[in-house]
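Dear Dr. H.,

I hope your travels went smoothly. While you were away I took the liberty of generating a structure for the chain from your last submission, since the lab meeting agenda had it listed for discussion. I wanted you to have the full record in hand beforehand rather than looking at slides cold. The sequence, exactly as received, is reproduced here:
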Amino acid sequence: MAKKKHKKKVETASFVEIEKDFGLWEDYMAFGPQYDTVNDCPLIPGETECVQELPFKKLSAETRKALRSAMVNRVVEYWQSERLIPEGGIVKELRKAAIQETYQLTGQYAKDSDEVKHLLNESIVQSINKELRKEKKTQS
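The corresponding predicted structure, in token form, is as follows:
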């Protein structure tokens, strides 16, 4: 009998649809559709674009750092307003917001995979502990 050939699995690219960033035109979008004379194209409110989701391993080191710092900022804001450790759906919202913010800064959209979840969820406890230490120093 002939040996079976094992075919490698080819990963297909996954895309996500996000709302388009209009930059300096953002202020004028409240008045309805605008026309961008520089790029010679119409701008429509609520317009979306398809962006490729990159797995954690393909993200640059700069993007990983930006992702972590965005998550830390979101967690600290939540901690200061609610005085609660985020959990469940709130963590998912914070993660999504951090990924969105990082995309606008670096242009790389991170796929919400287990590795990204681990990186971002790990930063939650560390950032809250830092905040508690700061508060303890100021009280004593």
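Two observations you may find useful: The mean pLDDT is 86. The longest helix spans residues 114-139.

With kind regards,
E. W.
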